[in-house]
TrEMBL record:
Gene Ontology MF: a single term: glucosylceramidase activity
Entries under Gene3D superfamilies matching the protein: Glycosidases, Golgi alpha-mannosidase II
Keyword Ligase appears in the UniProt entry: no
Superkingdom, natural source: Bacteria
Annotated signal sequence range: 1-19
UniProt-listed Pfam families: Glyco_hydro_30, Glyco_hydro_30C
Domain Glycosyl hydrolase family 30 beta sandwich stretches: 411-470
Domain Glycosyl hydrolase family 30 TIM-barrel: residue ranges: 72-407
Name the UniProt record assigns to this protein: Glycoside hydrolase family 30 protein
Similarity comment text for this entry: Belongs to the glycosyl hydrolase 30 family.
Any Gene Ontology CC annotation: membrane
Organism of this sequence: Flavobacterium agri
Keywords: Glycosidase, Hydrolase, Signal
Amino acid sequence: MKKPILLLMLSALPAIAFSQVGKSATVYTTAENTNMRLAKSGEVSFGPSKQPLETEICVFVEPKKTFQSLLGIGGAITDASAEVFAKLSPDKQKEFVDAYYSKENGIGYSLIRTNIHSCDFSSGSYTYIKEGDKELKTFNIDHDRKYRLPLIKKALATAGNVPLYVSPWSPPAFMKDNKTMLKGGKLLPEYMQPWANYYVKYIQALEKEGVPVWGLSVQNEPMATQIWESCIFTAEEERDFLKNFLGPTIKKQLGDKKIIVWDHNRDLMNYRANVIFNDPEASQYAWGMGFHWYETWTTYQPLFNNVQKVAEAYPDKKLIFTEGCVEKFDAAKYQFWANGERYGLQMINDFNNGTVGWTDWNILLDEKGGPNHVGNFCFAPIHVDTKSGDIIYTPSYYYIGHFSKFIRPEAKRVSTVVSRSNLSSTSFRNADGKMVTVVMNQSDAKVTYNLIVENSKTVVEIPAHAIQTIVY
């Protein structure tokens, strides 16, 4: 059968040229030991490029080579975040919501995660049913109406209808073999269908509240026995729960909701991908795989390459970073610069390895790194001193903002490499045609580098311990 003439013409079209010669770019900078925080720090002009010397430091961008499209960048609205938010004055509440969700006055978050009933970042354990109600007749989300739903609705009102996904930390205690929501344990076989129905009930309840749900993950951290809400699924158990219960139930009751598997660290993600994605019956229900950054609890380095290996092996599946935070809260380290750099390095590497969405953990915590009902206190990009009412912005907030404010949903990643290991970089081309290149310098010295985009070049200086976004 002959192809239509229009299709033949489209397939023959060359890649869109992107010449910057004679054009300018705007540079935004955040740097340690300066007052620059997402500050417009200069304009640079492009001229023609030529072969760089080995002695020159370069960032090479090739707009003809594009990769994944961005779903969004955001964070989790937990019980803890919502409870702290409720303590702010109305003016401070508006400042906070704008700081995250406004594209003009903040960093333009475009993705939300939230917990299905309690997690460690709740003031206590709770579910949406009476204990023992396997038919879910008592199901209601009244608990969420006090704190969490009001904040979610404010975020959505400011950000627009951005994707929101939900994650469980544990089934109710009676559904598990250890009879507690805490300390791991497993879902009992006779409760697999009631538990699958529970996700449906929660999503339906949110949508009845006017909160659209884009997707869900099967289980938060399914290989971690924690002192807080947790539940263990081996790869084979998650595969079978997805294949036989959760997948068919979601599809029948809710239609096209995106189901995320794994939702745990990079170290074991490849095994989980092999087991679930190589099973056609299970794989049909899996939109993709979520991952966290906590594999460094082993004292080894982040395993960014594992993300790339899943992307390479299963190109039809999406990858989404579902959680990361700086652990072990210490109020003396609110402005500890390395915390921000951790975000920058992780985001650049995850995007360069094929990630389509990136979700921080709690968007807000108090001056103790909580509330957290088991004392697992952590950092958030923004804290509130509940005694004074002050909002505290940490370096992490600004580092995330260098991506989320400028790289918008549906942007396509563009081939970007650096010629020296003291710099890291990624680029995206937004749907409006604007290019965004993020460059990070973790070294103790300022760096002058050539930004070479196809046939054009400009020279940029980045301070020591800084991150820059160049928009052109």
